[in-house]
């Protein structure tokens, strides 16, 4: 048992160092680098000493302060969040099974979702809840037209493609449908393209511009920690920041903030590539999306924090895209992820067992 604890501790230190190194690299790419004053440094360490019982590396605060121009002692260092907090908030034993995109229609059967044509789960194909042969999967998809294909177990927009399939071939390439499926190999899903609301499409017509919401569950209450919108760049299908997209916060009235942020160095963006000014832009059906998400989170007993991606359909209906049991924090776009002075909340989180140590 002592050996297991020592190994877990070493893995935690290595993992936190890797996050520290990653944010150092991002910090170096920033055009403006701001220094923390001694007073600010003391304020940050005093807060975390009280909230979680230890000091924290300051590089995350330097990075976010430099990017946004807004100082706060309450930014959550990614290394702390990843190694100490997320495993206490969520039970990692169930993470992959629940967050598999192939089971979303079974978890949330009553929610608007893109139509699923074919699933591949552990090398086996399914359609309409029934197992099918490889040949049947190809037959069902050979003339689907415009579709989305994506891995079912990956996040951050990895592997997401929008393709047009006609007569068993991928238009605009030499690839056959069989070769496309072989490229994805296993654990993927083929779905219809969302026809989004005109106000959402105006932000970038090529991508499904999604609302990302982070919710926190405590007992029988779900609290919205923040909402941001993720917008693709010109001609890009994916809206994730990690894949080149930009994001800005959405206020309580469903209006966008002044600035969006992309990859490090792409800061304080005021207009989308399609020419839309972000500040004050009204997102349709925002209240309906928030209420839908709060209701869905109550169905996830093993997860106290969850990120949700929703589109808004052409008639204004919320459309579920996916949810994430191991979400990143959008602190550049929004600010401190857990709000101002979240001492009570952090103390509550640290009372739980960390389930992540077995998954490093």
Write the layout of secondary structure elements.
Elements: H1 2-29, H2 38-52, H3 59-68, H4 78-89, H5 95-99, H6 104-107, E1 116-121, E2 124-127, E3 130-132, H7 134-141, E4 145-151, E5 161-166, E6 169-170, H8 177-184, E7 188-192, H9 198-201, E8 210-218, E9 221-231, E10 246-249, H10 286-297, E11 305-312, E12 318-324, H11 343-349
Antiparallel strand pairs: 1-2, 1-7, 2-3, 4-5, 4-7, 5-6, 8-9, 8-11, 9-10, 11-12
Helix pairs in contact: 1-3, 1-4, 2-11
Describe this structure in words.
This protein is α+β, with helices and mostly antiparallel strands. It has three domains: 2-90 and 347-359, no CATH class; 95-106 and 196-325, 2-Layer Sandwich (D-amino Acid Aminotransferase, Chain A, domain 1), CATH 3.30.470; 115-192. It has helices at 2-29, 38-52, 59-68, 78-89, 95-99, 104-107, 134-141, 177-184, 198-201, 286-297, 343-349; strands spanning 116-121, 124-127, 130-132, 145-151, 161-166, 169-170, 188-192, 210-218, 221-231, 246-249, 305-312, 318-324. The strands form two sheets. It has a seven-stranded antiparallel β-sheet with strand order 3-2-1-7-4-5-6, with helices on one face. It has a five-stranded antiparallel β-sheet with strand order 10-9-8-11-12, covered by helices on one side. The model has no long low-confidence stretch (mean pLDDT 92).
């Amino acid at each position: 048992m002592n050996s297991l604890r020592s190994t877990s501790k070493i893995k935690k230190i290595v993992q936190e160092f890797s996050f520290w190194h990653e944010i150092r690299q991002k910090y170096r790419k920033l055009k403006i680098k701001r220094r923390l004053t001694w007073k600010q440094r003391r304020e940050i360490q005093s807060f975390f000493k009280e909230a979680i019982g230890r000091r924290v590396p300051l590089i995350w605060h330097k990075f976010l302060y430099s990017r946004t121009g807004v100082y706060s002692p309450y930014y959550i260092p990614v290394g702390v969040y990843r190694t100490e907090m997320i495993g206490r908030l969520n039970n990692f034993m169930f993470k992959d099974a629940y967050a598999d995109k192939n089971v979303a229609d079974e978890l949330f059967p009553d929610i608007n979702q893109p139509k699923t044509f074919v699933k591949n789960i552990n090398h086996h194909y399914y359609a309409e809840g029934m197992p099918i042969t490889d040949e049947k999967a190809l037959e069902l998809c050979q003339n689907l037209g415009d579709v989305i294909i994506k891995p079912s177990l990956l996040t951050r927009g990895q592997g997401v493609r929008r393709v047009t399939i006609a007569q068993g071939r991928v238009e605009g390439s030499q690839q056959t449908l069989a070769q496309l499926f072989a490229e994805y190999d296993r654990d993927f899903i083929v779905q219809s393209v969302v026809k989004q609301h005109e106000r959402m499409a105006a932000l970038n017509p090529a991508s499904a511009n999604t609302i990302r919401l982070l919710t926190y569950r405590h007992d029988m209450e779900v609290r919205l920690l923040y909402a941001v919108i993720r917008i693709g760049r010109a001609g890009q299908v994916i809206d994730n920041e990690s894949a080149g997209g930009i994001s800005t916060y959405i206020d309580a009235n469903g209006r966008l903030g002044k600035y969006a942020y992309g990859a490090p160095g792409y800061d304080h963006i005021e207009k989308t590539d399609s020419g839309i000014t972000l500040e004050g832009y009204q997102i349709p059906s925002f209240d309906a999306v928030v209420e839908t998400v709060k209701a869905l989170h109550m169905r996830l007993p093993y997860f106290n924090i969850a990120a949700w991606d929703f589109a808004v359909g052409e008639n204004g209906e919320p459309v579920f895209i996916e949810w994430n049991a191991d979400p990143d924090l959008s602190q550049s776009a929004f600010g401190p992820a857990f709000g101002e002075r979240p001492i009570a909340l952090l103390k509550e989180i640290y009372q739980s067992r960390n389930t992540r140590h077995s998954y490093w």
